[in-house]
Design goal:
This protein has about 260 residues and is mainly α. It has nine helices and four strands; from the N terminus they run H-E-H-E-E-H-E-H-H-H-H-H-H. Pfam families: DUF455.
């Protein structure tokens, strides 16, 4: 997946990876105690198509979903996030078969293969919906913020988990219900239904982040909340913005993590 540039091919490859994994056709390096030196070179950046053009996050125009152009812009931005998310899950699997010298169990791979599979599903759903609205992924510019976060945390599994699933994906839980409601008010029930599917899956993705972040904190002999706060201060640009979706975050186990237990 990381070396596959065409977006649809990348998404389909993620789905095939999951099918092959469930069929027992793939091995997990962590189970054999092998680390990143197992001969697999992980690229600093995944292969990407020529389009969309990548702009700084602040250069992105904001449009509401009340107009067709606004809905296309919203779905395009979400498709870009999901394409990044495929690469993020696969990079996690390739880059971190161990942590702090300890091999990671097969359960770790089970979680992130599932995440890659679902992110591939999300991209394909959004791409199809864009087509129904007369657009395509790559028609509009996008920003590179998610992969910049991946590059900044490539050295440390705990940092990657803190910034990607526990900051960025958790923020998606905060804002998606309002976006679904706005699409419904605009009469775009089909797009709203797609976002609701993504929302439900993302609760599980954040839960996987919580689960493996807590394990990483245990290996470092640090309370999860203390480690999370330290890593966010070091690696996250900006502040953590509310309001927070406390119900969805609680479903994902975030409340317990942040309680410092």
């Amino acid at each position: 997946m990381l070396l596959t540039a065409p977006p649809e091919d990348k998404a389909l490859a993620a789905r095939q990876l999951a099918a092959d994994w469930r069929a027992g056709l793939l091995a997990w390096p962590g189970a054999a105690g092998e680390g990143p030196s197992n001969g697999v070179e992980v690229p600093d950046r995944p292969a990407r198509p020529e389009k969309p053009d990548l702009l700084p996050p602040r250069a992105m125009k904001r449009r509401g979903p009340g107009s067709l152009a606004g809905r296309v812009a919203l779905l395009h931005a979400l498709a870009h996030i999901e394409l990044n998310a495929i690469d993020l899950a696969c990079d996690l699997l390739a880059r971190f078969p161990d942590d702090e010298g300890a091999p990671l169990p097969r359960a770790f791979a089970n979680d992130w293969v599932r995440v890659a599979d679902e992110e591939g599903k999300h991209f394909l759903m959004l791409q199809a919906r864009l087509g129904e609205l007369g657009a395509a992924y790559g028609d509009l510019p996008a920003h590179d913020g998610l992969w910049q976060a991946a590059e900044a945390t490539a050295h440390d599994l705990a940092a990657r988990l803190a910034i990607v699933p526990l900051v960025h994906e958790a923020r998606g839980l905060d804002v998606t219900p309002q976006t679904v409601a706005a699409l419904t008010r605009a009469g775009d029930e089909k797009s709203a239904q797609i976002l609701d599917v993504i929302y439900q899956d993302e609760i599980g993705h954040v839960a996987a982040g919580v689960r493996w972040f807590e394990a990483a904190a245990s290996r470092r002999k640090v309370l999860p909340k203390v480690l999370f706060d330290s890593l966010v201060e070091t690696h996250h640009t900006g502040t953590l913005k509310g309001p927070f979706n406390e119900d969805a975050r609680a479903q994902a186990g975030f409340a317990q993590l942040m309680a410092g237990t």
